[in-house]
Fold each of these.
Amino acid sequence: MAINNNAMLIRRELLTRVAQLLIDNQLIERIDRIPLEMRPRGGDHTRCCIHKDRAVLKYKLMGILGFNIHDEQDELTPLSEYARQAHARTQLTDVVLTVVDEACSSCRKNSYEVSNLCRGCVARPCMVNCPKKAIHFAGGQAHIDPEGCVSCGQCLKVCPFHAIVHLPVPCEEACPVGAISKNERGIEAIDPAKCISCGKCIVACPFGAVVEKSHLVEIFRTMQQGERPVVAIAAPAIAGQFGADLGRIRRSFRMLGFADVVEVAYGAEVTARTEAAELAERLAEGAPFMTTSCCPAYTGMVRKHLPELQPYVSHTRTPMSYCAEQVRQQLPDACVVFVAPCSAKRHEAFHDPNVDYVLSFEEYGAWLIAAGINLNTIEPDTLDGLPPAEARAFGASGGVTLSVKALAPEGSVRDLQISGLDKAAIKQLRAFCKAPTANFVEVMTCEGGCINGCNVISNPKIAARQLQAAVDKAPKIA
Amino acid sequence: MDKKIEVRICFGTLCHVMGGAELQLLGEALPPDLKKHVEIKGSTCLEFCHQQGQGQPPFASINGRMLSGCTLQSLIAELYKELN
């Protein structure tokens, strides 16, 4: 989700500065200066003081260097030391998100409060309708007992004066699976056993406290070593992100030092064909329905939170997986970098033997800025070929359904699309399991699909149009 | 005759990544009373980012006057200022 706010701008500035230092080969020497340069003495600060701002920036940089903030052993360890360790690092983990506890403002517990708009009315619907009898009146106003309140929100719904307000914890509210909650210090912590790496908490946190661990250092190191060709495989959603056609995007990757760049839409074509065949086979065997499998946050949700749906999830691999395999077959020693719209793909990539690293759309954008590349003014590359239109359409909700329908016998697919996975959608899927109303279910964790992932640049409305333009240039799937 | 205001939006990659992507929606976000006065033009780069001390991206210009740190709302406010 592209949301213009200062937390997003700070994140992109940090990424740009790190990319600049990597380009200049000055990361270890100069990374400790970034917090000082961004918050110079005498300048503005957004938290209590400039020192707090700098400390938060330091920890965000630690995350960008690929470290878990809670793994810190010594607060005095400088960023240069983390940069040194990152340069030497050979192992990654599948924990892709980390919380900067210094940045987490310890939002008040998700609660309902009575404001001074309360008129102390005679009807008192809040008190009457509270299922836990947690509201009493004193001094002419309603009061909510925090011990008894279960945050059902009934009082808010029935108050005729709109005097009751909901104080949410944004990250907790955004998380569809209840994976982020306060620890004993009141700081948000992510439970890896529940987390599906969707990144909704990154976007939701107004303090920018959730950071996605980056592979920038590893990608630069591999390029600088020059022993393996570094090949980018770009998710279909990229076509809608930078206001530039795919020829220019391809050219820019080569200018950044990539040996080649391949559209993941080629993998999406394999996914489409395999999934259509699998659907036909399953339905012939009597299965009531099948769901898609290309969104890793969704499949993670099923695995961890909705096991009754697991038998119906397609076994077809994701476009990224097929595309990486194709590259690996052609260039066995290549370093394959998936260019991704969301953090869930980073988690998926860790478990894919053919993907080495992930570069998010934001990181790619920051790298372009650092390298001084303006996509609008560079000459476009000629594309080697064109993947099918339906495969390019995987970048938005409805794309998978479009391709499966195009390949399946006419009229055989009765589809249901879930575009955006939240608590209500999970409930809907649970009910659907018991009484299916369609035989093909497409689920995208982000509303609108990958063009609305946590790492996107463009407003999804614009991105959808630009993606469609790329789709329209490609031939129909045959 | 209606007063005409020219808005030029920088679509350079720096501006685009640093929040300017949203400015592509300006045409749709314009209130009806502004729409007839405003002509929106895109620019591959307004070159303001190369000038020291010109503020933060994303950049735009209204009748040649440079604006920095633009958002949809700030541009609309500036357009009203220009109109009046």
Amino acid sequence: MIKETRLLLKNITYDDQKCLEKYIERGGFRGFRKVLELSPDQVIEHVKVSGLRGRGGAGFPTGLKWSFVPKNSGKPVYVVCNADESEPGTFKDRILMERDPFLLIEGILIACYALGSKLAFIYIRGEYQYAYKVLLDAIKEANQSGYLGDNILGSGVSVNITIHRGAGAYICGEETALLNSLEGKKGYPRIKPPFPAVKGLYGCPTVINNVETLCALPVIFDMGAEEYAKLGTEKSKGTKLFSVSGIVCKPGVYEVELGVDLIGFINDVCGGIIENVTPKIVIPGGSSVPALTWSECEGVKLDYESLQNAGTMLGSGGFMVFGDNVSALDLCLNFAKFYAHESCGQCTPCREGAKWLVDILQKLKNKTAYPGDLERIQAICSGIAGHTICPFGDALVTPVISLLKKFPDDFSIDYGVTSVSP
Amino acid sequence: MMELLSRPLSVEEKQRLNEYFLRISSQYPEKQSLAMPLLFACQELLGFVSKEAIEFVAEKSELSPAHVLELATFYTMFHLKPVGKYHIQVCRTASCFFCGGQELIEFIKGFVGKDQLVPSDDGLFSWELVECIGSCGTAPAVLINDRLFECVTVEALKNLLERIKRERPELKLSVFRDDFSADFLDYPFSRILKND
């Protein structure tokens, strides 16, 4: 029987968790107070020990990412929280921000202390107006109570947080596009290197972390990095939030130890599959990861390595389950439209290719496709993947290729005999 | 060059924008970062981003008007023409689409009776298909102005829109005000975590 392990979601059900007083009463800022007893380098070391990996999608080790920031560059260091959650199927960050805003603020404080940053930004997607307002109120309250601003809790540490709204561009979740947007530019991803850790916001060293990653920090320092590292698997340590949607009985945000069984997770935690629907497609990490057929899910564990071995990825934890009432072609077309709409337009293969894919998939749907169109889809996908500045191009071909390969019947171009003339 | 609608800023509007500018300029090391917040502020006052608004934002954020126009066209939440008093954003991405979203989209289309982003004849409503709005577990979802409505059925939306027509609530969050307007919270939130 798989159960939730609520660390980040520990206090998520309290409606008054948005009050600083209640946050502190329930253990808030204990992690940060422990951090204040350590040197910044020790903090980075602890984060490495915890095994925490980026929870936004890429899964890069957080401590390692932090250690790339040059010491004494003479420039200010910025911490940027990526709250531009827009990966289809993902809504965990919204819940965290709306329900437990101080957890994020404490996480940002810890990151700022470790990196010597005095100014942090939260880049929140424009559509999350309620979360934005909740965070604004929380920042204001923290400032008034000495948990933000100058000389926090008499420690000599000073941190300010600026919250910045996006305006409806998925691409700004890509970290360098986010930085451009924050600088008042179009959200065009930058060529790397230089990496943001060296040359990021306003040309200064910058660390960009996802909301969930930052929210894990207070938990890690409160319970101890070694204790946290005991959770999960050898290489995927700790807990992960999954945003579950689709044909399960209880969709929602769940937190489980990394490495739990996928089918067990659906049955024990998400209430199982709804009645009279046969599960068909599982997408475990948001639309940008390869889809699994239901039979492929057998025996798969929910952690970075197991999912990779199963031919997919953990991604953002946007866990979508679709039944046999959904055609893989319809799903593929839906995703293709998403990517065609959200392509920033900077690289030709992505900008043009995404539209071509929509055109061909739409023709397949209308039963007006030509012989050779399936091969054409493959050719366009190989023309996009690996030929763009940012991973968006790869992300857009991933669902197309995996759905096409795994559900060929749904993409059949054989329309049968439509007219018979002797 | 695309044609921009003219709508000059009144003295009072300029004063409010200047106050807002002063309040937020200390939060950013560089002026150019103020362009997007200022565009949002202008849009809130005017209902859309006018030619004069672009010029104002350009001056304040020390960018060229062409650069600011580029922002206003790149980011889909900025509107260069007025939308309805209640702008309905309906999610068309997978989890919503396959969980009742299709019927919802058809209903909204018929209800507003106009193409996307074009206000209804009484100016009250407009609609737009948007990508994932982070409410997949409570699909299908729509945003009406700044308010998210989850687990929406055609029936529930019909009633909601009738109520909005009757009561004319604000359903907006203001950059000029700190508090929520009363009606924003008055409209029922659906369950946020279904598992509780």
